[in-house]
Amino acid sequence: MSEERQGTRISGGPRKAQEIFDATLELLAEKGYEGLTIEGVAQRSGVNKTTIYRWWPSKGALLGAALIGARQLDFTPPDTGSLTGDLEALLHTVVTLLTTRPASDITVSVLGAATQSPELAVHIRDFFADRIALEQPVFDRALARGELTADTDTMLLVDLLAGAAWVRVVLRRLPLEKDFVSRAVGTVLNGALTRT
Questions:
Q1: Residue 2 CA: distances (Å) to CA of 7, 10, 14, 18, 20
Q2: Which of 81, 155, 186, 193 is the most exposed place for a label (fewest CB within 10 A)?
Q3: To the nearest whole number, what is the mean pLDDT of the chain?
Q4: Mapping DSSP to helix (H, G, I), strand (E, B) and coil, where does residue 196 land?
Q5: How far apart are the first and last CA of the chain?
Q6: In b/e form, how buried is each residue of 27-53, taking b as 16+ CB within 10 angstroms?
Q7: Cα(44)–Cα(22) distance, rounded to whole angstroms?
Q8: Nearest to 56 by CA among 112, 158, 149, 126
Q9: What is the pLDDT of residues 90-127, one digit of tens each?
Q10: CA-to-CA distance for 160 and 163, rounded, in angstroms?
Q11: For residues 22 and 74, what is the distance between their CA atoms, to the nearest angstrom?
């Protein structure tokens, strides 16, 4: 991961970018998107609000940058040696984001707010594009091993798995069985129909 990606200087951002990002995500977890303000981030991070506005003109832009640049949401793609193992590891990451605080508070607040704020939705798309780009080596290795065909819609695979977790945890508020991850990955990769 590059120094820019780690947040030391995010895309030429301010020196205290990590402090700003941490404050942004902490306030989001505590107060939700409605309660997130640039003034609050400035106070919590110890950075002047004019500095924040110089780099991010709105709270949606700031939150989008924090989601991509914050160390606490860093992501390293798994390499278990198989597509099944890698997808299970990816889905475990999603489940953790949805079930473990404060990450779950952040995730649920962001995804809920994105449905109400067109500006935030644009930044959320950027976050997912960044995450999909980081996950791409999983699929490149699977293709090289012959586990996937070249025309596989890898974004659809990720959406099906993440969507299953999102619906189960957030919308239906059901507990996840111990074998949820392996069953979800198995169903997505192998289908549910009987084999003849």
A1: 9, 10, 17, 15, 19
A2: 193
A3: 88
A4: coil
A5: 46
A6: bbbeebbeebebebbbebbebeeebbe
A7: 9
A8: 126
A9: 999 999 988 988 888 888 888 888 888 888 888 888 88
A10: 5
A11: 12
